[in-house]
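How a chain folds remains the central question behind the approach discussed here. This step matters because it turns folding into a mapping between discrete strings. The sequence in question and its structure tokens are set out directly beneath this paragraph.
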Amino acid sequence: MLQFAVENRRWLAVGFLLTFASSFGQTWFISLFAAEIKAVHGLTDGGWGTIYTVATMVSAGLLLTRGSMADTMPLTRLIPVTTLLFALAAIGVAFGGSIWTLVVALIFLRFCGQGMFSHIAMTAMGRWFQARRGQAVSISNLGHPAAEVVLPILAVLMIGTVGWQSTWVIAAVVLVLVILPVLLLLLRQGRTAQSRLDAPDTPGLGGRHWGRSEVLRHWLFPALLPIMLTPGFIGTVVFFHQVHIAEVKGWTLVQMAPGYSFYASATVASALIAGWAADRFGPERLLAILLIPTGIGMLLIASAQAVPMWFAALGLAGVTQGISASLWGALLPSVYGTRNLGSVRSLATTVMVVSTAIGPGLTGVLIDFGIDFPRQCLALALWCFVLIGLGYAINRRLAHEV
């Protein structure tokens, strides 16, 4: 893998930078500014949550309708346009004078960050690599855990020194003056997926290149939907309800903070191993094991009495996140082909974005009705174990169709 990474460092760096920079539009980064945003706009927790959910859902709709640009628009044009829109959204969050401005800014922050940057990265990896696609996806996805380790500390320090609005300005400047020039430099030569006309196409099931309407009519995509939804749903609500979990368990956030390191480390290790396994045995084999770690982790949160069990639970959740990143990046081009990969991937990415939108609201309502999150984790664990059986069944059926 090291030799592969060195030989393809230019292309893998594109994916890594895109996933790293996508963090400015991820829930965990935006939540660092929640207190300041609520104070400026006079929002309650419920009002802030509602606005965030609406913005995320709208961004998912935009991704569904605009994700196919990754098939038809040169990356040397698509990336600059997306980056500039991303930077403007960051400025909008900082200086928007009304709720409506905040909503619009959040929509495009989520669309460009969690949506398009990650979507472009995985579409490019799926198109540029074939024999070692799983490893390419897993290496590129290391941008996510790298950002989770570095950016929270930097953001908190900058909020304390220059203020939260200036921190968003710095994020916008980094996007435009650092990330974008480096990406364009990396894309200057040779192996680019600038359009579907000059990219080598690899067919999927039945030796065909599947279009979006064909994907929706085929049995596989609907069968995969609950498995696609679950990692993002659970991963989001676990972090979203950290304060609530601390209150229920009698812990402090300071005691729980090292869990981020366990989560990031497990994500990195499992992504690399899963990428290798996807290339060696086929990505569909990962479906049956994807949710086993998270299922066990939810049981740990439900029963945890000591903080180390929280660390273990986050580590297990990180394993699932790492496997998930490698799985979808390798499976979708494998079964649906690469010619329309951007269009097809936008469906999957939209599903995952929607799952992160509905999770906090749904679990929050249950908490309001007296069902605390640790008790909800028992149901989430059961859900994971049911889907393990579904993943095994999908793998068995795919084996007869390849």
Notes: Confidence is low (pLDDT under 50) at residues 192-199. The CA atoms of residues 128 and 193 lie 7 Å apart.
